[in-house]
Design goal:
- The protein is α/β, with parallel strands linked by helices.
- It has a single domain, classed as Nucleotidyltransferase, domain 5 (2-Layer Sandwich).
- It has a five-stranded mixed beta sheet, with helices on both faces.
- The radius of gyration is 18 Å and the shape is elongated.
Length: about 130
């Protein structure tokens, strides 16, 4: 039985749709990666010396990359069982994951890489069904 996977991914979550002879299954993996932990967009602190309390940008970038690596490893562990993969998503995450798959010698499983906007889980499942049928 062939196992075809569709993967919609960004830095926040991955939606993996498995289509096989047994039917269809959808999994969601949440990322714990935060770009700027402790800061809110557009909101300035009213406390003095706030800049000294927040980690330096370099440390935040290293932490962000480490969290992404853990997230990508979790996704790749599921993709290893696939016979073919449709990879799509809105941003840079799909390209980063594709490179990780190449490093793991799993790039031969990738059938297509597409750029798409934000989608609901149902839209993702429908796209994967349509692609493999």
């Amino acid at each position: 039985m062939k196992t075809n996977l569709g993967l919609w991914i960004d830095h926040r979550k991955a939606v993996i749709v498995t289509v096989s002879g047994k039917g269809e299954e959808t999994r969601v993996i949440e990322s714990k990666a935060e770009k700027q932990p402790g800061r809110f967009d557009g909101v300035r602190s009213t406390s003095p010396y706030e800049s000294q309390k927040v980690q330096a940008d370099r440390k935040q970038d290293i932490k962000f990359v480490d969290q992404l690596n853990i997230y990508y490893d979790e996704v790749i562990s599921i993709l290893r069982d696939a016979d073919s993969i449709l990879l799509f998503g809105p941003g840079e995450a799909k390209g980063e994951l594709k490179k990780r798959l190449e490093d793991a010698h799993l790039d031969n499983l990738i059938q297509a890489v597409e750029t798409v906007d934000q989608m609901t889980d149902r839209q993702i499942a429908a796209k994967v069904r349509e692609y493999y049928n």
